[in-house]
Amino acid sequence: MVFAEQHNGKIHPVTFELLSKGRELADRKEVELSSVILGHQIREEAKELIYYGADKVFIFDHPTLKEFDSILYKQNIVSLIREEKPEIVLIGATHLGRSLAPRIAAALNTGLTADCIDLQLDEDGELIQVRPAFTGNILAYIKTKTKPVMTTVRYKVFKARERDPMRKGEIIEKEVKVVEDTGTKILGKIPREAVNISDAGVVVAGGRGLRRPDDLKMLEELASLLGGVVGVSRPLVDEGWASKDRQVGFSGNIVKPKLYVAVGISGSPQHLAGMKDSEIVVAINVDPSAPIFNVADYGVVGDLYEVIPKPIEKIKLRKMKL
Amino acid sequence: MTDNEFHIVVLIKPVPDMEKVRFDVEKGVVDRSSAPLEINPFDLNALEAAVQIKEKLGGEVTAVSMAPPAAESVLRDAIARGADRAVLLTDRRFAGADTLATSYALASAIRKLGRFNLIICGEKTVDGDTGQVGPEVAEMLGIPHIAYVTEIREVTKEKLLVVSELGAPYLMELKLPGLITVTKDVNKPRLPTLKDKLKARKAKVEVWSADDLADVADVSRFGFSGSPTQVVKVLVPPMKKRRSQIFKGEDAVDKLIEALEMEGLLR
Amino acid sequence: MREDIVEALKNIVGDDWVVNNPEAVKSYLEDETEPGVKVEPAPATDVVVVKPVNAQEVSEILKLANREGVPVYVRGGGTGLACGCVPSKPGVVISMERMKEIEIDKENLMAVVGAGVTLGELLKAAAKEGFFFPPHPGDEGAQIGGLIACNAVGARAVRTGPMRNYVLGLEVVLPTGEILRLGGRLVKDNTGAGKLMHLFIGTEGILGVITKAVLRLSPQYKATATMVVPFNDRRACLNTVPEILQSGIIPLGIEYVQKKEVELTAKRLGLEWPSKEGEYYLLIMLAEFNEDTLYAQLEEIASICRKNGSLEPLLAETPEEQTNILKIRSEIYPTLKPYMEDSPDITVPPANIGKLIEELEKLERKYDIYIPLFGHAADGNLHPVIPVKEGWTKEQYEKLRMEMYQIAVKLGGVTTGEHGVGEARKKYLKLNLSNEAIETLRKIKKVLETTPSH
Ligand SMILES: Cc1cc2nc3c(=O)[nH]c(=O)nc-3n(C[C@H](O)[C@H](O)[C@H](O)COP(=O)(O)OP(=O)(O)OC[C@H]3O[C@@H](n4cnc5c(N)ncnc54)[C@H](O)[C@@H]3O)c2cc1C
Ligand SMILES: Cc1cc2nc3c(=O)[nH]c(=O)nc-3n(C[C@H](O)[C@H](O)[C@H](O)COP(=O)(O)OP(=O)(O)OC[C@H]3O[C@@H](n4cnc5c(N)ncnc54)[C@H](O)[C@@H]3O)c2cc1C
Ligand SMILES: Cc1cc2nc3c(=O)[nH]c(=O)nc-3n(C[C@H](O)[C@H](O)[C@H](O)COP(=O)(O)OP(=O)(O)OC[C@H]3O[C@@H](n4cnc5c(N)ncnc54)[C@H](O)[C@@H]3O)c2cc1C
Question: Which ligand is located closest to the Cα atom of residue C28?
């Protein structure tokens, strides 16, 4: 069973990734794949869960479920699990998922594995859950003795299947249990403050290789196409081209994005201190001996003004086609 | 502590100093003896939050840990940082606990402590790293919780107004008694004074065994026997090597774009 | 730069390790010297950067430069504060960044390191094997070669002194290209080689290029702490320092900082200065083999501080807390840099530090300025900042600088305790050294080279 996380009636993409993995596991175990969604006026959206691989979708639709409430969500899901007895329950390891899943597991007195990056089946068809621990220094392989086996799974580790609007499945409306006052209340959403490059998934960083402050716009365009933000080396902050909260390095921010693009940055030890744990590092520099290339996965020796426009064009072109 | 005094429980996990702990790539083991224990960094924020609330509302802060006997020094540190009382659950029978069994032991200890208004946990730990203990303890005690609290805006004896990160920051209200888990953003923990450190070195840490909880708990649910999840294998991945593909010349950019597409990074 | 020289350099190190694209050369023209005393580098088009990987290549480069009469500038981490690595004339910059070999010799408690290893890299490699390296001159991007050339000191040198005390062996290339290997994995070496070695420590590279070093390591301490002691009175704060040393406890480090500067720095770094009380602080770093010894010392030091009117000390024990305090201390200089003309590195006999403060306060009144102040209190080494003041001319700054220097000399001190002379402060050398002494240095240099390197 896959928990479908939704915000304002829109399903979180991690759900589709879980459905894809769930489909694979269900097929190998020759069982059904179900999904559960809670919210208000979500019947239309629920069909998406079938298009992405669910056989059955349970809907809890009620005004009190419009926004997340850990106790209300827990109660309805727990009673559904007690009825349906799924073998495995998958929940996205988002903030919401990681706040909700432990309550469900504790209520069911079952095991829960956190933030998995891989799920495998052993010879006996039992689920092996793989997760990093010790701040990413080790990988633990975990089995659960109790049923259901519950797991939260990290976003963007599995690939969602193609959406198939012809796929058929069953949608089952469940009766909602309402609790008057659960003790928590959402009073409103708060606009996020300034850029936070520490948490960004993609950072495109510019250094002294840039000639004018205006040229940062080019990096901004690339960054936004990649879904990321712009960072800078210290000299650009000293020059007043960018604000301090964009500085990467020892005396700035430590970043660990999936993709770090260093553009016209030499790779001083102080700069490396802020980005060396990035997953993939790309460097663009005219100087083949620049130390940044020592920590790069991919690099281009060349003039950034000739290099950067090309991927920008390429991505734009593809976005137009879609 | 009188009946209407505000009582805060802070859950503190003693963890190995991550800068010193060593990992054996070949054997796939973590050598815990290589590093001294310290307060889980996120729990320093939890403790600071508790002390700040106490400074406003009065009352008492109790620190509770489940850990090996060597963790007494960690709880003394908690006392130096403002906890009034410290309880260490330590017993062979607590060993090998997963989050469910850990939460059960901690929830039982809190029950045994008696009345409480607020429980504060860290967002997660730097070793087990699950972030599950807070919400599980709340469920076991039948109280509401708010996780990933990044800011505490208002506190009264009846409720808390907090900002919680749920994909986006939300302003939320929590009725007490309740539980929160806090992130590093919630405050900047203060340094203890030398005087408090010296005093805490002589302070008493209450040590409770599994039997001490027998009147409020089912002891078979502690430790390994009460743990449904089991770590069957541990891998220490070797330090990641960079791919080091540096392209030069005419088609360098095309090669870069191709490589990034292969990595699925241009989606 | 002459094409034939570029080609010859490429023949020595390979095409990829010679940089003459002016846009790339620009990264190798500056260091961290104060804005007001910076030396103007030669244009990027007149400079070529070369990155040798061993002593042999360095030797060939030096021979070439010698032959062609081209000045050579050795560049380490570029964190120097005297423009020592700045090519002030058209020439060759030798960047040591590729000399990265590093071996921890556990049995001998030593490390054998290439000159291009950064302090950060050494600290990390040593810690991994359970060792520690005390000297900490501010920025961990400095290289071992640069630290030795400058005989750097820094914040953790009260107990064990400057870089010189850690160097057991050196590989040096003379300006004429000869490679010397002096000292070695020896704690004692009273032969001529061991003595000669010291000629190259602290002489800022003018006598030769350091390519490799054997360094002494210290075992990791089991119990460490950084105590922050706030004071309301500046002199009381500084006068406490000699008393601590006289008590028989020699901490790893005793640093002096002030509220205004540390709060500004902490804010810039996104950190918080731990103390809400006091205006002036001593940061006392201790390292011992067990907690009881550590605490006994803490109590003794605290009682001396209290007797001198300190407020309640704060104690940092976790690595993160200690690192953050050291980080704030180290980053005061870069934080103040945009507001400073200069920051003299004056050093007086430790017991005269109280008098030094009095004199600096007189200068504040005389010039109607605020002089930010921080430094290595136990070494008698302070960094008073000459702030940028609207309307001031170069001459006015120069006058104030000279007054500061003269105060130091009058109190039995020198114009630089650790940052060195470099290109930026050559002209002040005569305040410290007699003509005869300067002439002697010149003679030594002449013996070792045929062409001046700076
Ligand atoms: C105490 C201290 C703390 C510091 N903290 C930080 C910190 O937190 N973060 C930080 O970044 N730095 C920090 N620094 C500064 C650091 O030492 C370097 O000076 C800085 O990182 C250099 O920035 P850069 O790489 O942008 O510039 P440079 O080193 O000048 O590099 C520019 C690069 O651009 C390349 N280039 C030039 N033109 C082009 C072109 N047209 N196309 C492609 N490439 C081109 C050049 O080849 C060169 O490699 C700190 C320094 C000190 C002393
Ligand atoms: C490699 C590895 C992987 C693991 N994976 C899982 C797993 O997927 N699922 C699972 O159920 N167990 C798992 N465990 C076991 C789990 O780490 C322990 O149960 C641990 O005691 C608590 O979990 P945590 O460290 O993740 O705490 P978290 O849930 O991350 O801690 C959150 C907060 O709870 C409080 N807290 C947690 N533990 C204690 C304590 N002992 N005493 C006082 N307060 C505490 C603190 O306030 C802390 O900040 C794993 C253990 C290891 C070594
Ligand atoms: C924020 C900050 C704080 C600092 N704090 C301190 C401090 O507390 N104490 C202190 O002593 N210093 C301090 N410094 C100064 C600086 O870190 C040291 O002087 C350091 O020793 C310089 O090393 P480097 O590798 O960066 O040398 P560079 O700046 O590259 O060069 C300095 C000099 O050494 C020569 N040199 C470099 N490498 C070699 C080599 N392999 N062979 C021969 N000559 C060489 C250069 O030619 C030049 O003359 C600080 C600097 C900064 C930026």
Answer: 1
Residues A3 and A34: beta-carbon distance below 8 Å = no
Query: Residue C225's beta-bridge partner residues?
Result: C286
The alpha-carbon gap from A315 to the nearest alpha carbon of chain B, in Å, equals 7
Does the C-beta of B122 come closer than 6 Å to ligand 2?
yes
Which range is least confidently modeled, A297-311, B239-253, C59-73, C135-149? B239-253
d(CA C192, CA B178): 75
For chain B, the average pLDDT equals: 92
Name the domain count of chain C: 4
Say how far apart CA C171 and CA C96 lie, in whole Å: 14
Q: What is the largest CA-CA distance in chain A?
A: 67
On whether both C168 and C230 belong to a single domain, the answer is no
Is there an atom of ligand 3 within 6 Å of C201 CB?
no
Residue of C171, C173, C174 whose CA lies nearest to C183: C171
pTM for the complete prediction? 0.91
Residue C186 near residue C169, CB atoms below 8 Å? yes
Q: What is the pLDDT of residues C118-151, one digit of tens each?
A: 999 999 999 989 899 999 988 999 999 999 999 9
- What is the spatial distance between Cα C190 and Cα A116, in angstroms, rounded to a whole number? 61
CATH of the domain at B133: 3.40.50.620
Q: Say if strands B178-182 and B118-122 run parallel, antiparallel, or are unpaired.
A: parallel
Q: Look up residue C148 and give its two tokens.
A: 């030795």
- Give B21 to chain C, closest Cα distance, Å: 10
Long-range CB contacts for residues B26-30, cutoff 8 Å, separation at least 24: B28/A138, B28/B233, B28/B234, B28/B235, B28/B236, B29/B234, B29/B236, B30/A134, B30/A137, B30/A138, B30/B234, B30/B236
3-state secondary structure of B39: strand
Within this chain, do residues C205 and C123 fall inside the same structural domain, yes or no?
yes
Instruction: Say how many C-beta atoms besides its own lie within 10 A of residue A29's C-beta.
Output: 15
Identify the CATH number of the domain in which residue C351 sits.
3.30.70.2740
**CA–CA dist A173, A168 (Å, integer):** 16
**What is the helix (H) or strand (E) element at residue C229, kind and residue range?**
strand C223-231
For tokens 């005093």, the residue is: B199
CA atoms within 13 A on the CB side of C18: 21
Interatomic CA distance for residues B229 and A142, integer angstroms = 7
What is the tens place of the pLDDT at every residue in C150-163? 999 989 999 999 99
ipTM of the complex: 0.92
